[in-house]
Specification:
heterodimer; A: alpha+beta; Fructose-1,6-Bisphosphatase, Chain A, domain 1; 2 domains; 6-stranded mixed sheet; two-stranded antiparallel ribbon; B: alpha/beta; Helix Hairpins; two-stranded parallel ribbon; 3 helices
């Protein structure tokens, strides 16, 4: 089904009542996909959020008079006299959202966890009246639930025009306690220090950071399209500052991406000698660490005015910076004895493989362009700084240089996010954002690409 | 002759080791009382016997390790006053490292836990900082990373 991706999950340990509740959440998630598909349109940078004939300037001008035009939760349409007007999602989709809300109300009645029940009720109501913040705050401030469940208009990647409008998505999962404990430990090891900030910048201090690993059962809407391996919510920096943020790592999509993309890329792009030094398990662990580091980094540094300054370029810097900052933090962890050099090398290898994955993903899904552009910037930076040599289409990393390179790239990216202008960011992308190096590996990667297309 | 390895422990660390040693001894006693399962089951090696043996071996090895620690430990002591501006075992140290302000305690390897801000004296940071005093800038170099660490504060409690 379009806009939906399901994973096999072990529900054996759930009680009968919990199984019924779980099914209701999955049904609700399924019903979100058609709404997302109505928002999506890869032919236009503004997807279907704005009239296709409206220019960026016209929208900005209309927003000066009526700020709701650029509200994250509205469609922009033309009225009979041709003026731009905003219609809230929950009004436009009122009919479609009714059964979804009803399913959440029913699931709430089945929950034996009082707070989860309250959360579901709040979410149910928010879908109908647009009060998303209230349920989000409740979700951020209450305990870790057995079920991972998020539904509503959340991520902004579909809006390549302004990076404002939120696309519908949902996921349902079951907490993986063992993996969560491991991720929690790694998080605590990384978050022991206080980072200095660049003078003159407006940093946001995130009050608390939760982490969980979920055995996801379904991705719907934007989540199914992007197939992320992790999520860090909320996106609103003010909420993040006041109530903290929650990281979710999705074990099934990580398994899928590792088995179908990252590990085959490792076997294709790196020299055989290097391949012999790592087991599949070691690299999986590194891949998991990569995503934990990435999501944690989203919360370590957030600059209040970065989105406003960098506009549509913001997600390119934001996503890449999170990967690079996370890896940079591993340097200190090595010195503290919390990570071995071999483990850091594995993280670097998996980062490189992940860069290829994002680029391959973007070939058939232009909506992941931000990630792919970031992947190209990192790859070109490493190659230009001679931290990676390419010999007969084989990557030969020089790990010590790569660590220095990561530090340097981190400084550049942080400057753009903290203080840089739109023009400077654009120039940086022009300097490092070419896909040529990644493309030169296409002949070797065709098999992997074909398999991806078939899936 | 090989020098025996010294284990540096805090009072709390020693207490934990003693408690864990006692617990493992009791576990072994309990396991031994259970009785050995038959070696063969339907002419094949009994898996219960194998797992019994493995458990027992594991417990024996844990007991040996604890006995070695209890024989060769040394309690971490606060250094004399004149030396308290230097990093020794037990020092709560505040540093500037890689653009970040970090605080941690230098402990013996047995108690090291970077997630709880307890760093081993054998970790690259531990090794590099030992003996240095407040204000020192210490270069730390490993196979992969090189960083300069400035010591800002040292406390002993």
């Amino acid at each position: 089904m379009e806009g939906i991706k399901k994973f096999k999950v072990d529900t054996e340990k759930l009680s009968q009542k919990e199984k019924v509740l779980f099914d209701k959440l999955i049904q609700a998630a399924e019903l979100i996909a058609p709404l997302y598909l109505q928002q999506k349109n890869t032919k236009y940078p503004g997807a279907n959020f704005y009239p296709h004939d409206a220019s960026k300037e016209e929208i900005e001008k209309a927003a000066e008079k009526n700020s709701i035009i650029l509200d994250p939760y509205t469609f922009v349409e033309r009225n009979k006299s041709g003026e731009l007007v905003a219609i809230p999602f929950h009004v436009k989709f009122a009919k479609e959202l009714q059964p979804i809300s009803k399913l959440l109300e029913e699931a709430a009645k089945l929950s034996e966890n009082k707070n989860f029940s309250i959360y579901l009720k709040k979410r149910a109501r928010s879908l109908l009246d647009g009060s998303y913040e209230e349920s989000e705050i409740f979700w951020l401030t209450t305990e870790v639930f057995k079920f991972g469940f998020v539904i509503g208009p959340i991520e902004r990647y579909l809006d390549k025009l302004f990076f404002r409008k939120c696309a519908y998505q949902a996921w349902v999962g079951i907490l993986d306690k063992e993996r969560t404990e491991e991720a929690e430990y790694f998080k605590n090891a990384i978050l022991t220090s206080q980072r200095k900030i660049l003078p003159g910048s407006k940093k946001v201090d995130v009050s608390k950071l939760g982490i969980r690993v979920d055995q996801a059962a379904i991705f719907s809407g934007q989540k199914a399209d992007f197939m992320p391996t992790g999520s860090n919510l909320p996106n609103n920096v003010n909420l993040m500052e006041k109530y903290g943020s929650n990281i979710t790592i999705f074990k099934p999509s990580l398994d899928l991406k590792f088995n179908n993309d990252q590990f085959p890329i490792f076997e294709t792009v790196f020299a055989e000698e290097l391949q012999k030094t790592y087991s599949r398990e070691e690299l999986f662990e590194a891949s998991l660490r990569c995503i934990v580091l990435h999501e944690i980094s989203h919360s370590i540094i957030r600059y209040r005015d970065a989105e406003e300054r960098l506009k549509d370029l913001f997600p390119i810097f934001d996503e890449l910076f999170a990967y690079i900052l996370g890896i940079k933090g591993c340097g200190s962890l090595i010195l503290k004895g919390g990570l071995t050099p071999k483990e850091l090398k594995a993280i670097l290898i998996m980062h490189i493989c992940r860069n290829f994955t994002w680029w391959l993903d973007s070939i058939n899904n232009p909506d992941v362009y931000h990630y792919a552009k970031g992947a190209a910037i990192a790859t070109n930076f490493f190659v230009q700084e001679k931290a990676i040599k390419i010999d007969r289409r084989i990557f030969l990393p020089e790990f010590a240089n790569l660590c220095i390179c990561i530090d340097n790239l981190c400084h550049f990216l942080e400057y753009h996010l903290a203080l840089g202008s739109y023009e400077e960011a654009k120039n940086f992308i022009n300097q490092y954002g070419s896909f040529d190096v990644l493309k030169s590996f296409l002949p070797q990667l065709k098999k992997i690409l074909k398999k991806k297309e078939a899936n | 002759m090989l020098k025996e390895k010294k284990y540096y422990l805090t009072k709390e660390g020693l207490k934990k080791i003693k408690e864990e040693y006692k617990r493992v001894l009791e576990l072994k006693k309990k396991k031994s009382k259970e009785g050995v399962p038959p070696v063969l089951h339907s002419e094949e090696l009994n898996t219960e016997f194998v797992s019994f043996q493995e458990d027992l071996e594991f417990l024996k090895s844990r007991i040996e390790t604890f006995e070695d620690i209890l024989k060769n430990f040394e309690l971490i002591k606060i250094p004399p006053k004149r030396e308290r501006d230097k990093v020794y075992l037990g020092a709560q140290t505040k540093v500037e490292l890689d653009g970040e302000i970090d605080e941690f305690t230098i402990v013996g390897t047995l108690e090291a836990d970077p997630a709880k801000k307890k760093l081993s004296d054998e970790s690259p940071i531990g090794k590099a900082l030992l003996g240095h005093k407040i204000g020192d800038k210490v270069v730390m170099k490993t196979e992969m990373v090189e960083r300069i660490c400035k010591i800002l504060e040292i406390r002993y409690t």
